Amino acid sequence: MTEMLKIDKLNKTFAAPTGDVIALNNIQLQVKKGEFITIIGPSGCGKSTLLKIVAGLDTDYTGAVVLNGKPVDGPSIEKGFIFQEPRLFPWLTVEKNIAANLSLKDPTTRTRVTELIELVRLTGFEKSYPRELSGGMAQRVAIARALLRNPDVLLLDEPFGALDAFTRAHLQEVLLDIWQTNRTTMLFVTHDLDEAVFLGQRVIIMNPRPGHIRSVQPIDLPFPRKRSSSSFQELRHKVLSEFEKVEEPTIDVGAGI
Amino acid sequence: MSEQVLVKKQHERDGWLSRIPKPLHGWILPLIIVVIWELVSDIGNISATMLPSPISVVAQFARLTMNGELFEYIGISVYRAAQGFLLGSIAGLLIGLSTGLGKLVERTLDTSLQLIRTIPLLSLIPLFILWFGIGEFSKVLMIALGAFFPVYLNTFLGIRSVDLKLFEVSRIFQYTRWQLLCKMIIPAALPNILLGVRLSLGISWLVLVVAEMMGASAGVGYMIQDARGYSQTDIVFVGIIIFAVVGKFSDSGVRYLEKKWLHWRDTYKG
Ligand SMILES: Nc1ncnc2c1ncn2[C@@H]1O[C@H](COP(=O)(O)OP(=O)(O)O)[C@@H](O)[C@H]1O
Ligand SMILES: [Mg+2]
């Protein structure tokens, strides 16, 4: 068992005029290669902050974040990131968005882009502009764009949060497919309980003020999972009860399908 | 509701307009004005020095075209305006890029530029004449100064309104500085930059007229000034119309570029 990502005594404080905000307090987390981790917690508990630190977008922290044996000190191609919004470049077509700073004139990139467009089922939309896409299609472009770099670890910050239930369910399947084929390590942030239990091999439960890991729930269910199965419901309840111990029920409970 | 009904409705709404080809719709009002103008100058008791009739303006136009004077003047004017415009807008673009990208440049340069900007350009004409004379250099420089600010301000604004979220994406993909500039900042700022270019074309044209009327021995502005001296008001009109037409063409040029480069924009198109 190889630990790919090690987070040790991670602390992050934001300086604010109204006083410092402790966004992350003593985070300890180890992630194995190829593991699917979901992180759930109410808004403001530091999920995005944690992901940005792992991505290397924010290097102002104390503690250790080590990926593949190297401390994280900035973005790198081994770390892919998918944001809540697709964040496509509006002036580029779908295929050019996926290629981004890589050239489509390079035959290997060209072939990979075509494959990825097929994978996220956007064949026929290669030359479309982002304004012509629905939210779900745009998010699929963002997924393809992240996958083109063959990242070892994919960081996803509530990627399906803004989508309707059907599109979300579909993209969850797409993501599981990708994970099973490529064995990409996944760090998936969500505020949707069903999504966390449906996708994750371990669910990290976070709480705010200050942001910390409350508990870790292993989900020992084989894939593909069935939301209606009693074992699924049982685990879902277990995670939910972790939140009911805190006063504010800020978790999105009813968003499952 | 069938398509036919919808088509009919469209017809009813446009009425007589639908019988005229669409590209000509914009010319209906100017045409009406010319007709009224002709009638007024024919019927009324207005002297040709005050208001020459459109027909005499057209006649002058034909005469000036035949003897080659007109195109020579247009050529000279356009050349002047183009020189000043290019000088000013390229400087505006480059300095706008550097103040937009660098905090240090912004801090050291922007205040001075904002100060200069508040000076009404035309009040500087006496100084320009004093320092640089009334030659070509002086004129081009004045046009360049006028053309500089719209491009400078809008380039700066465009860069500073680049979405931070897209910027984060470029960091994830480790864009090089060059890629950041060419594939991210400039495309994102392009709508603003082109707006600046359009405004600056208009100003170049305006300053050109003033500069040529202040003192020149050729050019459309000179032609107007000269004709006024001899009370040849019809030539004055020819000059004014030339300015309007060339101005319109250059503006259409930028609009064409906007259509071509900014078609990705998702905005209300009427
Ligand atoms: N740039 C920032 N400046 C100051 N405070 C911030 C900043 N970003 C996040 N925070 C604070 O850090 C805490 C965690 O934020 P975030 O990681 O975005 O939470 P989540 O993604 O779980 O909703 C919040 O209290 C938030 O107000
Ligand atoms: Mg967040």
Please tell me about this protein's structure.
Chain A has a single domain, classed as 3-Layer(aba) Sandwich (Rossmann fold), CATH 3.40.50. Chain A is 32% helix and 25% strand. Chain A has helices at 47-55, 94-99, 107-119, 135-148, 165-182, 193-199, 230-244, and strands at residues 3-14, 21-32, 36-40, 62-67, 70-71, 79-82, 153-157, 185-190, 202-207, 212-218. In chain A, α3 crosses α4 and α6 (193-199) crosses α7 (230-244). The model of chain A has no long low-confidence stretch (mean pLDDT 89). Chain B has 270 residues and is an all-alpha fold. Chain B has one domain: MetI-like fold, CATH 1.10.3720. In chain B, 77% of the residues lie in helices and 0% in strands. Chain B has eleven helices and no strands. Chain B has helices at 3-14, 28-43, 54-66, 69-101, 103-118, 125-132, 136-160, 164-172, 177-214, 220-229, 233-261. The chains are: A alpha/beta (257), B mainly alpha (270). At the A-B interface, β6 of A face α8 and α9 of B. Bound molecules: adenosine-5'-diphosphate and magnesium ion. Magnesium ion binds next to α1 of chain A. Adenosine-5'-diphosphate (ADP) is lined by residues 14, 16, 21, 23, 41, 43-49, 211 of chain A.
Class of secondary structure makeup of chain B: mainly alpha
User: What gross morphology of chain A would you assign?
Assistant: globular
Oligomer: heterodimer
Quickly count the helices of chain B. Answer: 11
CATH superfamily heading of chain A: P-loop containing nucleotide triphosphate hydrolases
CATH topology of chain B: MetI-like fold
Tally of individual domains of chain A? 1
Proportion of residues in extended strands of chain B: under 5%
Spatial order of the strands in the main sheet of chain A? 6-7-8-3-9-10
Q: What is the element string of chain A, with H for helices and E for strands?
A: EEEHEEEHHHEHEHEEH
Major β-sheet of chain A, in short?
Answer: 6 strands, mixed
Helical amount of chain A = 25-40%
Task: Output the helix-strand order of chain B.
Answer: HHHHHHHHHHH
Question: Largest interface, by Cβ-Cβ below 8 angstroms: which chains and how many residues each?
Answer: A-B, 21 and 21 residues
Write down the CATH class of chain A: Alpha Beta
Name of the CATH architecture of chain B: Orthogonal Bundle
pLDDT < 50 stretches of chain A = none
CATH architecture annotation name of chain A: 3-Layer(aba) Sandwich
Q: What is the percentage of strand-forming residues of chain A?
A: 25-35%
Radius of gyration of chain B: 24 Å
Report the C-alpha radius of gyration of chain A, rounded.
18 Å
GO biological process, one term (chain B): alkanesulfonate transmembrane transport
Protein name (chain B): ABC transporter permease
Family (chain B): Belongs to the binding-protein-dependent transport system permease family.
Domain ABC transmembrane type-1 (chain B): 74-253
